[in-house]
């Protein structure tokens, strides 16, 4: 038996080598993307990308810039994907309504097999799911939601007042995460504020989400991993990855809440005084398959997580940059004092949105600290693209990275500097290049809500307070050092520890 096996070994090895050689030759010379420039190693193997994303931990996004400097605006980043860095080509990839746009499978399933709007591959199914959610997040709906937002914002201001009175050090990373999660929790499920009232703002849950995002980067490259993980019982997952425990509990709790609404046990929306997403979604005209428990659980998970962590990241970075730049803080404070003479009173969202300096601060925060740092991938089954003379055949995966556009020195000089004034220069072109929410049919569902939260929270905070940020290190605590889908601070960052000053 052994002698047969040994005799066959050279044949098997030769066959293996011939197969490998053919794959390499195909990828280099015959593949539909063979003509696209890029590092030879990236053309033939995924290992190139894995090295930067997995071995060096979330570094590929930074490396992309040097690849584009070397190979031009259109490059091949792995055997089957193209990356484009051409800010003027952004709408061509992301803002098309005249042809179907799919999401590549590994990006759609980044958080696991995930039948939420954000995790939907197919264009047509995405339209169905997205249309059901759109009405909740229109500008009009968000304006009606302002009183809901004001409740946790007022509690947040009281927490800041208390910290200022006692001199306590506050971690604003968790403060802002709590306030945004309370807002979306109320909108989705008619729940009173919870997190903003907790002494540590519910820190552990937010830290677990950070760990979950790190795992999700692994999942983009090895999509079977999360599929396998979710097929295991929760108890096994909790033992293998303790950080998953809170995430799994959170998911199960969301499922319980949705089912309690469906079963009629949860009628909290009746006294809420505002519409709530999941009570209405359950009564919507979505087809029955779309209303199944797992589908709505995952939709809830996506809206709750996308609807809190992202805005909180912009709030905390903006807070640091404003407080660290006295001239900016003073200018903003002066504008807010004129608009809100009595800080005990709140101004309308519409009035606050008209304040030019506040708007400039928010645009600059979205540019410099846009939370979604990973490349955004799309597929066009029926449309080929032509960029910089390169034909990209229909069906290819095409990526673009908002972070690289926001850091483009040709558009935003000194891109690493927080300069709200650049938005007041009268250069109307700049807005075209602010793509923190992406554009087009798959752009951010919560854009209006996020912008309203940024306006209301920053106006309330900087009308009344300033911060001693001498204990914060920009390099360690604020700037993205690793791209885990959302930008992550350095591993040794304690959060954003500040002293609150009343002004
Ligand atoms: C400053 C805050 C925010 C930023 C910068 C942001 C950014 C983004 C980006 C870039 C995308 C596109 C992702 C992709 O194409 O794969 C996206 C999608 C999404 N965002 Fe946001 N987001 C923010 C806040 C919110 C909020 C408050 C919600 C609450 C509802 C939300 C819910 C979603 C959902 C559900 C999607 C998926 C949309 C779809 O696939 O149709 N986001 N967001």
TrEMBL record:
<feature type="binding site" description="axial binding residue">
    <location>
        <position position="444"/>
    </location>
    <ligand>
        <name>heme</name>
    </ligand>
</feature>
<dbReference type="InterPro" id="IPR017972">
    <property type="entry name" value="Cyt_P450_CS"/>
</dbReference>
<protein>
    <submittedName>
        <fullName>Putative benzoate 4-monooxygenase cytochrome P450</fullName>
    </submittedName>
</protein>
<keyword id="KW-0503">Monooxygenase</keyword>
<comment type="similarity">
    <text>Belongs to the cytochrome P450 family.</text>
</comment>
<keyword id="KW-0479">Metal-binding</keyword>
<dbReference type="GO" id="GO:0004497">
    <property type="term" value="F:monooxygenase activity"/>
</dbReference>
<dbReference type="InterPro" id="IPR001128">
    <property type="entry name" value="Cyt_P450"/>
</dbReference>
<dbReference type="InterPro" id="IPR050121">
    <property type="entry name" value="Cytochrome_P450_monoxygenase"/>
</dbReference>
<feature type="transmembrane region" description="Helical">
    <location>
        <begin position="6"/>
        <end position="25"/>
    </location>
</feature>
<dbReference type="InterPro" id="IPR002401">
    <property type="entry name" value="Cyt_P450_E_grp-I"/>
</dbReference>
<keyword id="KW-1133">Transmembrane helix</keyword>
<keyword id="KW-0812">Transmembrane</keyword>
<dbReference type="InterPro" id="IPR036396">
    <property type="entry name" value="Cyt_P450_sf"/>
</dbReference>
<dbReference type="GO" id="GO:0020037">
    <property type="term" value="F:heme binding"/>
</dbReference>
<dbReference type="GO" id="GO:0016705">
    <property type="term" value="F:oxidoreductase activity, acting on paired donors, with incorporation or reduction of molecular oxygen"/>
</dbReference>
<keyword id="KW-0560">Oxidoreductase</keyword>
<keyword id="KW-0349">Heme</keyword>
<dbReference type="Pfam" id="PF00067">
    <property type="entry name" value="p450"/>
</dbReference>
<dbReference type="GO" id="GO:0005506">
    <property type="term" value="F:iron ion binding"/>
</dbReference>
<keyword id="KW-0472">Membrane</keyword>
<keyword id="KW-0408">Iron</keyword>
């Amino acid at each position: 038996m052994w002698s047969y096996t040994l005799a066959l070994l050279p044949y098997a090895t030769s066959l293996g080598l011939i197969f490998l050689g053919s794959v390499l030759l195909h990828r280099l010379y015959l593949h539909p993307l063979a003509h696209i420039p890029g590092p030879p190693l990236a053309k033939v193997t995924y290992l190139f990308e894995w090295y930067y994303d997995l071995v060096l931990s979330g570094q590929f996004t930074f490396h992309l810039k040097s690849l584009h400097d070397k190979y031009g605006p259109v490059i091949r980043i792995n055997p089957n994907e193209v990356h484009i860095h051409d800010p003027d080509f952004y709408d061509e990839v992301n803002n098309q309504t005249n042809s179907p746009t799919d999401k590549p499978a590994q990006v759609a399933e980044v958080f696991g097999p995930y039948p939420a709007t954000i995790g939907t591959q197919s264009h047509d199914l995405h339209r169905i799911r997205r249309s059901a959610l759109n009405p909740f997040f229109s500008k009009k709906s968000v304006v009606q939601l302002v009183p809901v937002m004001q409740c946790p914002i007022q509690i947040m201001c009281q927490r800041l007042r208390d910290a200022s009175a006692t001199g306590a050090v506050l971690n604003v990373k968790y403060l802002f995460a709590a306030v945004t999660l309370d807002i979306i929790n109320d909108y989705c499920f008619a729940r009173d504020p919870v997190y903003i009232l907790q002494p540590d703002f519910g820190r552990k849950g937010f830290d677990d989400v950070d760990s979950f995002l790190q795992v999700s980067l692994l999942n983009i490259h090895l999509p079977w991993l999360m599929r396998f993980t979710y097929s295991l019982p929760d108890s096994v997952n909790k033992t293998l990855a303790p950080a998953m425990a809170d995430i799994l509990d959170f998911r199960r709790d969301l499922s319980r809440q949705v089912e309690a609404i469906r079963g009629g046990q949860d009628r909290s929306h009746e006294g809420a005084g505002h519409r709530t997403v999941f009570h209405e979604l359950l009564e919507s005209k979505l087809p029955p398959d779309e209303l199944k428990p797992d589908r709505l659980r995952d939709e809830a998970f996506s809206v709750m997580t996308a609807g809190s962590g992202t805005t909180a990241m912009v709030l905390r970075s903006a807070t640091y940059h404003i407080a660290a730049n006295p001239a900016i803080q003073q200018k903003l404070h002066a504008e807010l004092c004129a608009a809100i003479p009595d800080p005990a009173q709140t101004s309308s969202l519409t009035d606050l949105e008209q304040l030019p300096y506040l708007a400039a601060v928010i645009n600059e925060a979205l540019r410099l600290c846009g939370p979604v740092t990973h490349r955004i991938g799309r597929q066009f089954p029926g449309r080929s693209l032509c960029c910089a003379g390169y034909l990209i055949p229909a069906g290819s995966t095409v990526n673009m990275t908002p972070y690289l556009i926001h850091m483009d020195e040709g558009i935003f000089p000194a891109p690493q500097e927080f300069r709200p004034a650049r938005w007041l220069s009268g250069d109307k072109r700049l807005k075209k290049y602010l793509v923190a929410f992406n554009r087009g049919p798959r752009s951010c569902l919560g854009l209006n809500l996020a912008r309203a939260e940024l306006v209301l929270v920053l106006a309330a905070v900087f009308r009344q307070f300033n911060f001693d940020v001498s204990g914060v290190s920009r390099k360690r605590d604020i700037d993205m050092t690793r791209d885990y889908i959302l930008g992550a601070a350095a591993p040794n960052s304690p959060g954003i520890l500040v002293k609150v000053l009343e002004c």
